[in-house]
Design goal:
Blueprint (H helix, E strand, L loop, with lengths): L9 H7 L6 H24 L5 H11 L3 H93 L4 H10 L14
Length: about 190
């Protein structure tokens, strides 16, 4: 493959003629890439031709035309717009997913808080409903024991010689009594 006799200014026209950090430079770089791909495809297809060098010069001269360069820039701009659109769509989807996850997390936290509140209320009501009968039983037993005790004291002082009175005296002061066990013979 021989060298072209004329210098091609496509790089200068598409890329180097624009400001360094401008959107036009990016579009120019994409357009220049499209140009290089087309040139590579053309060379791969035509390098075996007899009049290769003249045809190559014609190919290169074609890209000296401002309309052709503008077409390359338009194609590059379309590529960039499609990329930006796809990128924006991906970013929006990701943001939407993050927002849904945040909303779901907030909902789960709220449900967890509600469940904790419900659990605590149930435990409190269970403890109250469980302890209330226990305390009622304890108080009832103490009152019953006090009443029996008062009845026993009343009997002791009212009928001091009765068997019940003696039993109560034994319970209250067992040291005064001696218990003897009699054997019963059959």
């Amino acid at each position: 493959m021989g060298k072209s006799n004329s210098y091609n200014k496509t790089l200068e026209n598409l890329v180097l003629s624009t400001e360094v950090n401008s959107p036009e430079r990016l579009i120019g770089m994409l357009a220049y890439s499209k140009y290089k791909i087309r040139k590579h495809e053309w060379v791969s297809k035509n390098k075996a031709e007899k009049d290769y060098q003249n045809e190559l010069n014609g190919f290169l001269k074609h890209y000296d035309n401002q309309e052709v360069l503008n077409d390359l820039k338009t194609e590059a701009n379309d590529i960039l717009l499609r990329f930006v659109g796809s990128y924006n769509e991906a970013v929006v989807k990701e943001k939407l997913k993050e927002e849904k996850e945040k909303a779901l997390l907030l909902e789960l936290k709220k449900l967890h808080k509600d469940l904790d509140s419900t659990k605590n209320s149930l435990l409190e009501s269970i403890n109250q409903s469980y302890m209330k009968p226990v305390w009622q039983s304890v108080i009832g037993s103490v009152i019953f024991a006090a009443i029996i005790f008062l009845i026993g004291i009343l009997i002791r002082f009212s009928y001091p010689q009765s068997n019940i009175s003696k039993l109560i005296q034994y319970v209250l002061a067992p040291e005064k009594y001696n218990i003897t066990i009699k054997e019963v013979k059959p």
